[in-house]
Design goal:
The complex is a heterodimer of chains A (349) and B (399). Chain A has 349 residues and is mainly alpha-helical. Chain A has 16 helices and no strands. Chain A has a single domain (2-339), classed as Up-down Bundle (Amino acid/polyamine transporter I). Helices cover 73% and strands 0% of the residues of chain A. In chain A, helix 4 packs across helix 15 (300-319), helix 5 packs across helix 14 (260-291) and helix 7 runs parallel beside helix 11. The mean pLDDT of chain A is 87. Chain B is α/β, with parallel strands linked by helices. Chain B is 32% helix and 27% strand. Chain B is built from 13 helices and 16 strands. The model of chain B is unreliable at 59-79 (pLDDT under 50). Classes of the chains: A mainly alpha (349), B alpha/beta (399). The A-B interface holds A 42, 100, 102-103, 111, 114-115, 118, 121-122, 151, 153, 156, 159-166, 233-237, 240, 252-255 and B 4, 7-8, 11-12, 15, 18-19, 23-24, 152-154, 201-204, 207, 210-214, 361, 364, 367-368, 370-376.
Chain lengths: 349, 399
């Protein structure tokens, strides 16, 4: 009886963690798709974003294998912090585009960072449980509201099928591949199990297919959101959208239902990006605590990634988000590859 | 655990103080809610912007009459001028105008002289003078008011050969309803009769102007101060441009027909009948009853297929209609009706080709054969469209 209760508790913890990873993968796919793939590939950006789907599955599988041998915690912390920064920047750009259009950029960034940190204060357990609770509602709302914002001429946005051509499409696909980074948080056991005790940690985790399926679905949701985005405008209009925030707006009709559709859709998008960023911050905290367990009491594990994100966002206010966005694919890709190298097993004689 | 909860609660309370607020808020009384806006070209290359807005208590108290002559837009000091007073053509609404080098500056002048902030969020109608619409300035004006002033994207764009400012001055709400509702009902009613083009909203017009695969079509309207009735020649009263119908209603403005564009500027006007055919071939026809040859018919949903022949480049349209005679004696057989429709549709398409306007959206079909943007732009669709042959087939069943 006690074993059954413990097993179901363990399974629930892993399901919540997988839901958080799915949210973050989907948010990262959409952020890179709108930020980099749309200017490169125009209306074929969704094809580039789809390439992130198998990458997320592979990353989830690699993370599960890594869990047994132990990841390199400092590198994992850096990778998850970088992913959190990407999502925070995307969230700030979208919030400034529509909901806070008259607010100063500093205010928008502060609100975005504050919201994500408040969510991350609950720890990985709290964020994961919230993601698990919204795992059906959020994608359904995004789909329904996104489709409601399309016009009757939505199919015009599909053509030309390959957008700018094969070369830009390839580059866009490469730029979107690092959207799989959030799946690396699965290399760590759920924080809820650490609180539950050694017996819980000793329980075997679900098989890798359990996590791969969820990471793939999350990334697929992000790719479909990128598809909705490209269906909203002809390629000529996409070419003129020169800000990240305007590229994230999914609306092709003039204020359907009095603007309610657009407002609700923006709120759900912001929620997804914020939860993804919070999950990354919580995962970075957990990784840093593994590196330095003494930090736990001072909550410095969260403070250090928060300081890094604050500094980077302040730089983005001065120099623009362009350099950070352009550096994101290469940075995330290098960190992902380095993170996948497991720690050496210590020999005992 | 309790310490964490207390800390979180304290942070949430702090956030509630700092994340909310009304710093960006606007008092309703501080806004000049514009319902209709008109833009005319003025001497020396300037623009005259006339707006019809809700009046506030302050404006009603400051009303000085007569001011129509003052606000007719004559240029006063240099390039910029604003109306000396406010016209109140009907209770509850005021009309103001300003002249400046650009639409944005004119709106800023209005804000400065009112002194309320011009708010285009409730805009229902944008009226452009035809002379202005035939230049690329039309796109600039519409783009400015949409992106810089946040004009409501569902506002209908109207082109008139008259003075656009006088056009909106003549507009009055009838039946005692408010002007904003009157304009909504007006355009919806004309749209249901297929006498105005289907996608004449500001956001749709802007998107079409930027698109290389479809051209914009706006509502074409004109005033008719002619009070006596006319006996009109021809089968159809709507086979003409507005401003020439016998006036049987208090409203002096007639809305009928389309102003079709080629890129950013207007190139031709279509009559009400031609607009109905345009709605038919684009699959946007909403009316289910039609009068043809002395009889009234009810039409089932019409099937329309359009394509561009890949071998000959011809514009091909096939229409299949089922009609039921509900009144009168049909004077034409199904075959004669079909032949007449084929001719009318072919003439319409050729007319649009002559005006270099792809308002029917054949470009959106042609682009499907190109895989990349470079392939499509190398096709030079504009030149191909103008010289393409036209093939129309219509099948009609009458029961």
């Amino acid at each position: 009886m006690q074993n059954t209760a413990l097993e179901s508790r363990v399974r629930a913890a892993y399901r919540a963690q997988a839901a958080a990873a799915a949210f973050a993968c989907g948010a990262a796919t959409f952020a890179l798709g709108s930020g980099l793939a749309v200017p490169m590939c125009l209306n074929a950006a969704y094809i580039a974003a789809v390439c992130a789907v198998p990458a997320s599955g592979l990353a989830a599988y690699a993370a599960c294998r890594l869990r047994a041998r132990g990841p390199r915690p400092l590198l994992l912390c850096m990778a998850l912090t970088a992913a959190a920064l990407l999502l925070l920047l995307a969230c700030a750009q979208l919030a400034g585009q529509l909901l806070l259009s008259r607010a100063a950029a500093l205010y928008v960034c502060a609100v975005t960072l504050g919201g994500a940190l408040l969510c991350a204060l609950c720890g990985e357990t709290g964020v994961s449980r919230l993601c698990f609770a919204l795992r059906i509602a959020a994608p359904v709302l995004l789909a329904v509201l996104g489709v409601a914002g399309l016009s009757g001429q939505w199919h015009a946005g599909l053509f030309p099928l390959l957008g700018s051509g094969l070369v830009p499409l390839g580059l866009g696909a490469c730029a979107c591949l690092p959207a799989c980074i959030p799946a690396m948080m699965l290399a760590l056991p759920p924080a809820a199990l650490a609180d539950a005790g050694e017996d819980a940690l000793a329980c075997p985790p679900p098989p890798p297919a359990f996590f791969v399926r969820r990471a793939v679905l999350g990334s697929l949701a992000g790719a479909l959101l990128t598809l909705l985005l490209t269906l909203c405008n002809a390629y000529e209009t996409l070419r003129t959208l020169d800000t990240w925030g305007s590229r994230m707006v999914i609306l092709s009709q003039a204020d359907p239902h009095g603007g309610l559709v657009q407002e609700l859709l923006t709120l759900v998008q912001l929620l997804a990006l914020t939860l993804g960023a919070s999950a990354m911050l919580a995962g970075a905290e957990q990784a840093l605590l593994r590196f330095r367990p003494s930090m736990k009491n001072a909550r410095a594990g969260l403070l250090i990634p928060a300081i890094v994100c604050t500094a980077a966002m302040t730089l983005s206010l001065v120099y623009g988000y362009g350099p950070l966005l352009a550096a994101a694919p290469a940075t995330l890709a290098i960190l992902a590859l380095l993170t996948m190298i497991p720690m050496r097993r210590t020999r005992t004689i | 655990m309790r310490r964490k909860i207390r800390l979180l609660a304290a942070l949430l309370a702090l956030a509630a103080l700092t994340l909310t607020g009304c710093a960006g808020g606007q008092e309703i009384e501080d806004c000049l809610f514009v319902l209709a806006m008109a833009v005319d070209p003025a001497p020396d290359g300037t623009l005259q912007v006339t707006v019809k807005a809700l009046s506030g208590t302050q404006d009603a108290a400051n009303l000085t009459l007569p001011t129509a002559q003052n606000s007719s837009g004559s240029s006063q000091s240099g390039e910029q001028s604003a109306s000396a007073g406010i016209e109140q053509s009907e209770p509850g609404y005021i009309t103001l105008s300003a002249t400046s080098t650009s639409c944005l500056r004119a709106l800023s002048l209005l804000s400065a002289t009112t002194p309320r902030t011009v708010n285009l969020g409730q805009l229902r109608e944008v009226v452009l003078n035809r002379a202005l619409a035939e230049t690329d300035a039309a796109f600039t004006v519409l783009r400015e008011i949409h992106s810089m002033y946040g004009a409501d994207g569902s506002a209908i764009v109207v082109v008139t050969p008259d003075d656009a400012g006088d056009f909106i001055r003549r507009q009055r709400a009838v039946l005692g309803i408010r002007l904003s509702k009157y304009l909504e009902v007006l355009f919806d009613s004309f749209s249901k009769n297929d006498v105005i083009p289907p996608h004449a909203q500001l956001s749709a017009v802007l998107a079409a102007m930027e698109s290389g695969t479809r051209d914009a079509a706006c509502v074409y309207a004109a005033g008719n101060a002619f009070d006596s009735t006319l006996v009109l020649d021809g089968d159809s009263d709507t086979d003409r441009l507005p401003g020439h119908l016998p006036r049987t209603a208090p409203a002096m403005n007639e809305y009928m027909g389309s102003a079709i564009f080629s890129g950013a500027h207007m190139t031709a006007a279509l009559t009400g009948d031609e607009t109905g055919l345009l709605c038919l071939i684009t699959g946007e026809a909403r009316t289910r009853t039609t009068f043809i040859g002395g009889a009234q018919y009810r039409a089932l949903p019409t099937r329309v297929t359009r394509r561009v022949d890949p071998d000959t480049g011809e514009l091909v349209v096939h229409v299949r209609m089922h009609l039921t005679c509900i009144a009168g004696e049909p004077l034409l057989t199904a075959g004669e009706l079909a032949q007449r429709l084929e001719q009318d549709i072919a003439n319409l398409i050729r007319r649009m080709q002559a005006a270099s306007s792809d308002a029917a959206g054949f470009g959106r079909i042609a682009i499907r054969r190109s895989l990349t943007v470079d392939d499509w732009e190398r096709e030079n669709w504009e030149a191909r469209y103008e010289s393409a042959g036209v093939r129309v087939t219509v099948d009609v069943d009458i029961t």
